Amino acid sequence: MIEEAAQALADDAHYPENSVVRAALSLVNDAGPAALADVYRHQLTYVAREARWRLGSIASEHAIDVLGSQWLDEVRDRPVLTVMPMQMCTSDAINVVSKCFPGRQIIFFGEGVDASHYPWMTPTPLFASQGMQGVKQIMDVLVGGGVFCTYPDFVYQGRGALPYAMFGRPRSMASAMLSIAIKTRAFYCLHSAGSLSIRSRSKLTSP
Questions:
Q1: Is-contact 9 17, C-beta < 8 A?
Q2: Which residue has the higher pLDDT, 94 or 170?
Q3: CA angle 33, 5, 63 (to 5 degrees)
Q4: What is the pLDDT of residue 107?
Q5: Which has more pLDDT, 63 or 107?
Q6: Which branch of life, at top level (predicted)?
Q7: Rounded to two decimals, what is the model's pTM?
Q8: For the chain, is the Cβ count within 10 Å smaller at the N or the C terminus?
Q9: Is the dihedral of CA 89, 90, 91, 97 positive or negative?
Q10: 40-to-9, 26, 175, 207 alpha-carbon distances in Å
Q11: What is 23-66 written as a DSSP string?
């Protein structure tokens, strides 16, 4: 069903998102029909995964394969910043971080998001407050040897930003997140082929 729906959206000449997605794909020289359908397939897959989390039907799909586990071993007793690409659903991100760092205090951040948005997750995830109070909460968790998880590749409106290059294109990173990142270790989460595949990376440095 997802395959057919994605292809239908890509083939619809009147679907307003197509021109925007094609423009984005052109930045990486891949604006063909197949790539357009792939974008929608990916988006629909994660909408479906989030729905299955809500329905409780995804409980048996918690296998996690860690690639680069030596980086996780290296930070067992250190504060950790995890950055999740926004292409994965939040419930998957919460699950992955919780499974990779058992017994550690973990705090998440998202604009306008708190634990009440994810009542199906157990244990109940801790989300940082908005503003400077949230920064203090995050730093307290990290000082205590905990883990902070957020999305790295965009900046919320009204927040300080620093420019950097991502895949050869100019992007913005939240300056507050960067100030935290350069003091910690980070690993990147990706999803593949029905199980969660974690690609672990070493310490982030200031650009």
A1: yes
A2: 94
A3: 100
A4: 93
A5: 107
A6: Bacteria
A7: 0.74
A8: N
A9: positive
A10: 7, 16, 31, 32
A11: HHHHTTT--SHHHHHHHHHHHHHHHHHHHHHHHT--TT---EEE
Scan for tokens 């935290």, then name that residue: 180
What SS3 class is residue 186?
coil
Cα 97 to chain centroid, rounded: 10
Tens-place pLDDT, residues 131-181: 788 888 988 888 888 888 887 666 667 777 777 776 666 777 777 777 776
Q: What is the pLDDT of residue 183?
A: 66
The upper half-sphere exposure of residue 53, i.e. CA atoms within 13 Å in the direction of its Cβ, equals 21
Q: Which residue has the tokens 């860690």?
A: 66
pLDDT tens-digit readout, 129-138: 887 888 889 8
Query: 129-145: b or e for each residue (b if 16 or more CB lie within 10 Å)?
Result: eeeeeebebbbebbeee
Token couple for 101: 């760092």
Q: Decide: 176 and 152 in contact? Cβ < 8 Å.
A: no
